[in-house]
Amino acid sequence: MNTNLVTISDSAGLTEAAEKMKKGKVGSLIVTDARGSKYGIITKSDLLFKGFAVNSKLAVKDIISSPLIGIVPDADIAEAAKLMRDSKLKRLVVTEGQKIIGILAEGDIIAVSPALYDLIAEKERFQTETEKN
Fold this sequence. Notes:
This protein is an alpha/beta fold. It folds into two domains: 1-68, Roll (CBS-domain), CATH 3.10.580.10; 69-133, CBS domain Like. The protein has helices at 14-24, 44-52, 77-87, 106-112, 117-132; strands at 7-9, 28-32, 38-43, 70-71, 91-96, 99-105. It has a three-stranded mixed sheet with strand order 1-2-3. Helix 1 links the parallel strand 1 and strand 2 (28-32). The longest helix is centred in the C-terminal third of the chain and has 16 residues, at 117-132.
């Protein structure tokens, strides 16, 4: 799990989001609303495929993934992999109560348990087949 959490306002532009990712050396940002509540996530892939490839003048709120899907820190790693597969996500937020304490990415799971790679690969095949249809 990555505990280096970087946030961005949903009204920010895509260029600002890309700059924050680069500066923070992260692959995703937690998105906040005007009140500072965390409610979404934006990833490098979102920026590239849903953002810049479509319209670079979009705001973060136009391309985020929401609601946040999370898991508790003591959850089983297989449970996390299954949740990613079933939700078609590459990242989960890790929460303690109402507080986000980290982000768990597919790569984190593979690094810890290569056997779970099959679950993730199955998700990728499913997504590819769905996109073709």
